[in-house]
Amino acid sequence: MNTIIHRAETRGHANHGWLNSYHTFSFANYYNPERMHFGVLRVLNDDTVQAGMGFGTHPHDNMEIVSIPLEGDLEHKDSMGNVAVIKEGDVQVMSAGTGVTHSEYNPNQDKEVKFLQIWVFPRVKNVKPRYDQISLKDIEKENEFYQILSPNKDGQGVWVHQDAWFHLGKFSKGTVDEYKIKKEGNGVYAFILDGEVEINNEKLSKRDGMGIWNTDTIKLKATENARVLLMEVPMAQGN
After folding, report:
1. How do residues 65-85 score in pLDDT, each as one tens digit?
2. ∠81-83-86 over CA atoms, to 5°?
3. pLDDT digits (tens, 9 = 90+) for 152-172
4. Please, is 210 exposed, middle or buried when counting C-beta atoms within 10 Å of its C-beta (0-12, 13-18, 19+)?
5. pLDDT averaged over every residue in the chain
6. Which residue range(s) make up the domain with 135?
7. In this structure, what CATH number is given to the domain that contains residue 81?
8. Is there a domain that residue 219 lies in?
């Protein structure tokens, strides 16, 4: 088993006033050659956008882009004609494929929005762009991991053009859970949203990240009440 740990305080940081962003992996003006990606997981940004502010229209291509709001609301508009608001308890996915433009704004004038912006390299390039979002309220569980993303169009949660599986878990102190790798050769990047946990006996706190590969099972114990995002991804492009 191989592991790598990225403590919260070691992440890249950019505060633009309207946007306060922490980068687990190299992004924009933050460049760390040792932190370019974890397998096909290319970007994990922890963003806070001030009231009434946001990202103007900008392009993407050949990337699977996942947004998970943690607090507040985020309004999305894109060149495919989609206009939607995602909020805490939702998950949004956009396959940029051959090319798409979009904007993301905080529609509220009285509160900020906090969300995770995640980019995954696709398994196939130049697919037709698409957009989807779901509410997790009908599938969320307590004290065990539940799937929010997979490669399967008919699976639970949203789907992407990659052999990736994302799971969320909300755990009470003392809870123990186990995650089994879905595809041989994949690794898992665990990101602690809140609280404290032990993963394979390693202590992790809020916004710490841990990559694990060359194993088939991951064991978690919540040492405090905690929320955890697991991102299982291929460790090499082209898998």
Report:
1. 999 999 999 999 999 999 999
2. 140
3. 999 899 999 999 999 999 999
4. buried
5. 96
6. 2-234
7. 2.60.120.10
8. yes
pLDDT at 143 over 90: yes
- Give CA angle at 206 (182, 114), nearest 5°: 90
Q: CA-CA distance, 204 to 35, in Å (whole number)?
A: 19
In this structure, is residue 60 part of a structural domain?
A: yes
Q: What is the pLDDT of residues 93-107, one digit of tens each?
A: 999 999 999 999 999
Task: Tell me the C-alpha distance between 49 and 77, whole Å.
Answer: 16
Number of domains in the chain: 1
The pTM is what?
0.97
Strands 146-150 and 130-135: unpaired
Backbone angles phi, psi at 134, to 5 degrees: -140, 160
Tell me if 127 is assigned to some domain.
yes
- Tell me the three state secondary structure of residue 10: helix
How far is the C-alpha of 234 from the C-alpha of 148, rounded, in Å?
A: 17
DSSP 8-state symbol, 68: E
Task: Tell me which residue of 156, 151, 93 sits closest to 124, measured CA to CA.
Answer: 151
Task: Please report which confidence band the pLDDT of residue 238 belongs to, taking 50, 70 and 90 as the band edges.
Answer: low
In angstroms, the CA 85 to CA 105 distance is 9
Q: Is residue 239 part of a domain?
A: no
Nearest to 117 by CA among 45, 179, 63, 188: 45
* Cα-based distances in Å from 102 to 6, 23, 105: 30, 21, 10
According to DSSP, the β-strands at 158-159 and 130-135 are unpaired
Instruction: Please state the rounded mean pLDDT for residues 189-218.
Output: 97
Tell me how far apart the alpha carbons of residues 51 and 70 are, in angstroms, rounded to a whole number: 15
